[in-house]
Amino acid sequence: MHNSVMLSRRLAAVAALSVPLLVAPLAMPGAAVARRSGDSRELVALYRFDSGRVGGTVADDSGRGHAMRVAASNGGEWLAVPRAGGRAAQLPTACAARRSCPRMVLQSGTAGDLNPWRRSLAYGATVRLPGDQTSKGQNILQKGYSATSSQYKLQIDGYAGKPSCVLVGRHDTQIRIVRSAVPVADGAWHDVSCRRSRSVFTIIVDGMVRGRAWVPTTLSVANSHPLSIGGKGGYYDNDQFQGAIDDVWLMIG
């Protein structure tokens, strides 16, 4: 089954977890997800990796123009690996050298439409992480930093390999986190996503709700930092994701 069909089905499953949604085919750039209530949530970023890197950038397949560039150190790079009739990105794996290990992330430019503020938010990715590649923490997707700004983030927590979702609001340093009850570090592909709808914050693994938490309806996320895939940045101690990643997406509205 091709990546675009699989991704459409996953987004439909995420949408069905609360307010019913109508899902437009994601084969079309800039496709939107619309609530039957008339409100809409837009696909604002999508990275399939099928076209590889062109002109030093990874294309934003949503059509919104948020191309990604590599930020790396110690020769960090991503490799294209086959998946579901397309390509995925294998990020640097673990090494014993620590400070001299390759590090690499993909980062967008700064753009206001990647900030949800108080609006509904959903984001996720398809990941593959072997059990021998876990660590104290690995970031799959994030925008912002918990200590210095607001943030939304999807990560793999600890050596058990369980994913979790994070929200930190503006002018509020409290970290709101929802953890999955099941791990994903088994060397197989897993769909992992986070959803914030008003006060409900949910983590979904392979189409099933695996954790739920409550957040203030006033919680607002907006910052000037880039959207980052695979870690905090291309430097030591960046919470490097050490697996393969595909179909990274973000919806707001």
Summarize the structure.
By secondary structure, the protein is mainly beta.
- Proportion in β-strands: 35-45%
In the CATH hierarchy, the third-tier topology is known as Jelly Rolls
Q: Compute the CA-based radius of gyration.
A: 17 Å
Helical residue percent? under 10%
Distance between the termini: 29 Å
Number of domains: 1
Based on DSSP secondary structure assignment, what is the total number of beta strands?
A: 19
Count of runs of 4 or more consecutive helical residues: 1
Taken in chain order, the helices and strands follow as HEEEEEEEEEEEEEEEEEEE
**CATH architecture name:** Sandwich
The shape, in one word, is: globular
Which class of secondary structure composition applies to the elements? mainly beta
Mean pLDDT, nearest integer? 87
User: What composes the largest sheet?
Assistant: 10 strands, antiparallel
Low-pLDDT residue intervals, each spanning 5 or more residues: 18-39
| CATH class call | Mainly Beta
Task: Characterise this structure.
With 253 residues, the chain is mainly beta. It has a single domain (45-252), classed as Jelly Rolls. It is built from 1 helix and 19 strands. Strands 1, 2, 3, 7, 8, 10, 15, 16, 17 and 19 form a 10-stranded antiparallel β-sheet that branches. The longest helix is centred in the first third of the chain and has 13 residues, at 3-15. It is globular and about 40 Å long. The model is unreliable at 18-39 (pLDDT under 50).
